[in-house]
Amino acid sequence: MASHEFPFSHFLNPINIENKITTENNDGLKLERDNQIDTLPISENQEIPKSEGFSIEELRFINAGILEHLKSNIATQKFETYFDSNFSLMQIKRNEVIFNVATNFIKNIIEDQFREFLGRSLREVLGNKNFKISILVNNQQVITASNTSNTSNTSNTSNTSNTSNFISSLERVNENNIINKKSVKENTFTLDLSPTKEDLITSVESKYINHMENNYDESNIDPSKTFSNFITGHSNQLAVASAIAVARNPGKSGKYPSLYLHSNSGLGKTHLLNAVANGIKDQFPHLRICLITARNFLKEMVEYIKDNNIEQFQRKYSEKVDVLMIDDIHELKNKKGTQDEFFHIFNELYNKGKQLIFTSDKAPAEIDGIPERIKTRLQWGLVIDIQKPDIETRIAILKKKALGLDLYLSDDILTSIATSIKSNIRELEGSLIKLSAFSDVMKMDIDMEMVKDLLKLNNYTEEKTITLEDIAKITSTHYRIPVADLKSKARSKEITKARHIAMYLSRKIMHTTQQEIGKFFGGRDHTSVIHALNKITTQLKVDVALSRDIIQIESHL
Questions:
Q1: At 38, which helix (H) or strand (E)?
Q2: Chain CA centroid to CA 547, Å
Q3: Of 149-158, 342-351, 401-410, where does mean pLDDT reach its minimum?
C-alpha cells in the first residue's frame, strides 16, 4: 500500500469564515452559526480557537469521526459516561490535538484509562502522525459535533458543499488506495511515524504516577472503592469490621456514631472511607453524605468568608449533613479559625446523633497544632489504628489487583514483590499497574528479571532475618513477662497465653517445624505446639484484643 504525506498544504490555505449567521437567544447571548451547526454561546470579545488549516466545520467533522471510532471500541456505558456530551475536539495544531472535557474527574479518567484508545482513534481519523494529546477542562470555546435543524436552506447547502470538499480532500490523499469513502472513520493517512521506545516508557510511568497521586474529588464518592474489593487481614480487620458496622447502622442508633481511623499513608483509609459512603448510599439513600478532605474543608470555609457568608457555611454542615466524613483531619493543625468552626460543627452533629468519620496519619493525641478540646472530641468515638499488612495480606492484595488488570504473574514474582514492598498498599498496587502497562506497550511477557529491573526491587531494604529468640523477646516484652518464663514449665494463665502466641508467630513467620518450636520453648513435644496453634487460630476469629496484640508484636518484628 502506498504511503502519502499529510496534505498540510490543503489545510493551511486561508479559510473563508465570512459565511456566518449571528443571532441572539432569549437571554441576549450571541450565537454564531457556521453553516448547519451551532457553536456554543460565545461573547463578542471571545474568539473561536484557531486550528492550523482546519475550518470550524472540518473540526466538527473530525470530532464526529473520533467519537464514532471511540464508540465502536469502548463499552457503551463507559462511552456514554465519559465521552458522550462530555468530550469534544477543540483545536488541532501541527503537532498537537486539544480536547475539552466537562470535569477534572473525567479528564483524569480519560488520561488514565482511555488515552491509548484516544490515540488509536486519532491515528484512524488523521493518519499515523504522532500527535501530542492535550485535554482541557470546561473551556467554553469548544467545537461541538451536534447538529441543529433550525437552519436555512442556504446553510444546509453550504454545509453540504463544505463537507463534500473536505471528504474529497481526504480521498485525494488516498488516491492510490481505496477511494470514494464517505465517512471520516474510513479515510486514513498513512505516515510511518510510530511512538518511540521513550514515548512508550513515558506512558508507563504516567499510569504509575497517576495511581500514586491518588487524586479524587471530595464531592464525589468513588463507586469503585467498596468493602467487596478491600482485602482484609490481621492488620486491618478491626477497622474493616467497624466500618461495616457503621455502613449498616450509621448515627446514634449504631454502635459507633463517631469513628476515627489512623495509619501511615497508603494503607487503605481512604478506600474504607469511600466503602462506608457507598454502603450508606445503598442502604440509606435518603441520608445526605458529605465526604471531603480537611484541606478542601478549609478552602471552602475561606470562600464563604470572602463572600461574607460564613453563616451559610455553618448551616450547610450543621443542618444539611447526616454523615460527615473528613479525610486527613490532621491537615487542620495550626488553622485556628477553621478549628473553631469544626469544633462547633462537630458538637452540633454529635448532639443530633449524626454519623462522624475521620481519618488521619496519627492518633488524635499525637496531632500537634490542634487544641485539646478538639483532640478530646475526636477520641469520643472508636479510635482504630491500621497496621502495615503482613506478607499473606500483601500477596492477597497483589493477586486481587492482578486479576483486575487481567495480568498473570507467577507465585515467585508475587512473593518477590510482596517481600520487597512492605509498608504501602498503594505502592504495592502501583507496581502491578506499572508491570501491566509495560507489558502492554512493549508487547513483552513478564519475567522475574523484568520485574526486578522495572520495579527496582534491589533498592528495597533486605528482609531482616528473624529468629525464634527474636519472637520470644518481643512477645515477652509486650506482655511484660521474662523470656525465661516462656521457656519454663510455668502454667499460669498469663504465661501460657504469651507462650502460645510466641509459638503461633514462630510457626506463621518462620515456618519452623513443630518439633523445633517445642524444643525451643522448654522442650515440649509437638502435640503441645499443635494445641497452642489451634487455640490461637480459633481465638483470633472472635477475639479482637488478641488480634491487636499479635499485630503489634508483628510490627515490632
A1: strand 37-38
A2: 30
A3: 149-158
